[in-house]
Design a protein that fits this description.
Helix content is 40%, strand content 27%. The chain is of the alpha+beta class. The protein has two domains: 98 residues, Porin (Beta Barrel), CATH 2.40.160; 114 residues, no CATH class. Helix 3 packs across helix 4, helix 3 packs antiparallel against helix 7 and helix 5 packs across helix 7.
Length: 251
């Protein structure tokens, strides 16, 4: 049996469109499964730090949990058990199988519990973003000399092309070439003891980029830093704009 060319062409065109639709739909579903949550975790020194998590859930069960703190490499937890009846998940700390934790689900968007490695109890909270997380990340800070100092220190860290990392992956290391984000990250720690993603120094840099390059960069600090057309001069210009805007906001 020989199909007419037009019928044959229409048939395979329809199949191709259907395949593309299914593929696109599947990608969207998979992408929607991963959520960005926040909260806190406790390190071995007993310090309570900001938690930034990538989480995948299926119903009440946590299928995947990755800790992605600002400026640090991601760490994947090992999920040992989900009890969706009693609403808890048992898991071990990344690369530390003896450091076992139990997180209790208090609501659909809030888990809290402790890790125990036989010597310490280390509390941890994971939850959907709310105003407390915004406060923890410095959203309530006012423009001040501290913010100016952070900007100025970032400029010093980016003193030359050799000191600038043009390929930012959001993982920062001290005393290595810095991206714009990592310069702000390191400067925040050196000046104020901790990085806060929503503090004015960082916020004003993001806003300066958006002002000068409207709707151009999705992940503002990283994409701007990595863009082929951006040189160190443009990075310094943005830091200068942010500093001027901070000074104006202080007056």
């Amino acid at each position: 049996m020989h199909w007419p060319y037009k019928l044959y062409s229409d048939y395979f065109s329809t199949k191709l469109i259907l395949f593309i639709f299914i593929l696109s739909f599947s990608d969207n579903v998979l992408a929607q499964e991963e959520e960005l949550w926040f909260g806190t975790y406790t390190n071995d020194a007993g310090e309570v730090l900001q938690g930034r998590y990538k989480i995948v859930r299926k119903g009440r069960a946590i299928k995947r949990l990755i800790l992605e703190p600002y400026g640090k490499a991601p760490m994947k937890f090992n999920i040992i058990k989900n009890d969706t009846i009693q609403r808890f998940v048992k898991l071990s700390w990344p690369n530390e199988p003896d450091n076992i934790g139990t997180l209790i689900q208090y609501s659909d968007g809030y888990y809290a519990g402790n890790f125990e490695d036989r010597t310490k109890v280390l509390p941890m909270v994971i939850k959907q973003f709310n105003f407390q997380d915004a406060q923890l990340q410095g959203n309530w800070f006012e423009p001040s000399e501290i913010e100016i100092n952070i900007i100025e220190h970032a400029v010093k860290l980016l003193s030359s092309v050799d000191a600038w990392n043009k390929d930012d992956d959001r993982v920062c290391h001290s005393n290595e070439p810095y991206s714009l984000f990592c310069a702000l990250y390191e400067s925040s720690i050196r000046v104020d003891g901790e990085y806060r993603h929503l503090r004015p120094a960082v916020k004003f840099v993001r806003e300066a980029i958006k002002e000068k390059y409207p709707q151009k960069y999705e992940h503002v600090l990283v994409d701007f830093n990595n863009a082929e057309e951006i040189t160190l001069k443009e990075v310094h210009d943005i830091l200068g704009i942010a500093k001027r805007n901070l000074l104006e906001a202080m007056n």
